[in-house]
Amino acid sequence: MKRASRFFRAGWLGWTCYALLVVSLRSPLTAAEDATKTNGSSQVYEVRKILDVPYYQGADADPAKHKLDLYLPKDCQDFPVIFFVHGGAWRHGDKSGFLGFYGQLASSWARHGLGVVVPNYRLSPSVVHPEHIKDVARAFAWTHANIGKYGGRADQIFVSGHSAGGHLVALLATDESYLKAQGLSLKAIRGAIPMSGVYRIEADGHMYDTMFGEDPKTRRDASPVCRACSDAPPFLIIYADHDLAMCSKQFAEEFCTALKEHKGNVKSLEVPDRNHVTLLLKAASDADPVNKAVRDFVAEHTREKRRGAINSTPPQRIVQ
């Protein structure tokens, strides 16, 4: 827990400095070379970007945080969609931030024929839970209603996100109340792929006070592990072998077990030689095993029916 507290105190500056170092060490492969190396003779698409689209325009709309970006495979129709929520401890971050990394990751998936939607959402301390997840639900509802206009499949939307974003998509895919408020149900989510997510907001963790308040019931209700249900979509839960304490194997596998107890279709994937940040940053490479695992999961569940059989296999581990 001390390790987790230090992370939160370090804030976004520490993340950004570390990210600069990691990015500087990445392979100089261009996007096209990377995609060709991985995809062989498979088609690689140009990426069409549509930025700063408002998804909520009520009287209280935030001029920056109620917008999203679209990354679309050009000249492609009826493509699956990844709805990706950024991280930053519910207090930091932006859809176009993290050194432009989210755009790199989204572009990678779009080159492989997937549409990607990256929303903003309001942050603490300006707001507290449940306002973050309400915004994410609004952005998802906009995507469900409008992605067909851009060539995407509204019945093939997968939710994904990293860190706090992993928490938010896991909560969206387990607590139906937020989608119901937008006129949708859990069936609108084809699959969920949280990365290094937070699945339990601990009752005695003061580091969560600013974002979730101090009420134990509120924290329990905000914990995806406590919201696991039989109606949840298929899950791929990804985490690093050197992840942060609150995002570690212990909590990821606890969430995986909770879903399985409700007969959920769920897999977990431990990524070796990665930490909380490098798991995300390296995923922007088309050749990265995490990038491919996400694409394979989408392909698998766009071929299958909405509900699948229980996956009772032990946790998987990528071999590089």
Describe this structure in words.
This protein is of the alpha/beta class and 320 residues long. It is 38% helix and 20% strand. A 9-stranded mixed sheet has the order 1-2-4-3-5-6-7-8-9, sandwiched between helices. Helix 4 packs across helix 5. It is globular.
Distance between the termini: 30 Å
**Helix count?**
12
Residue-averaged pLDDT: 86
Give me the secondary-structure category. alpha/beta
Low-pLDDT residue spans: 1-41, 305-320
Number of strands: 9
Helix content bin = 25-40%
Please trace the helix and strand order, writing H or E for each element.
HHEEEHEHEHHEHHHEHEHHE
Radius of gyration from the alpha-carbon trace, in angstroms: 18 Å
* Biggest beta sheet attributes: 9 strands, mixed
Strand order of the largest sheet: 1-2-4-3-5-6-7-8-9
- The coarse overall form would be globular
Topology record:
Layout: H1 2-25, H2 31-39, E1 47-54, E2 67-73, E3 79-85, H3 101-111, E4 115-119, H4 131-146, E5 152-162, H5 164-172, H6 177-180, E6 191-195, H7 209-212, H8 216-221, H9 224-227, E7 235-242, H10 249-261, E8 266-275, H11 276-282, H12 289-303, E9 316-317
Parallel strand pairs: 3-4, 3-5, 5-6, 6-7, 7-8, 8-9
Antiparallel strand pairs: 1-2, 2-4
Helix pairs in contact: 4-5
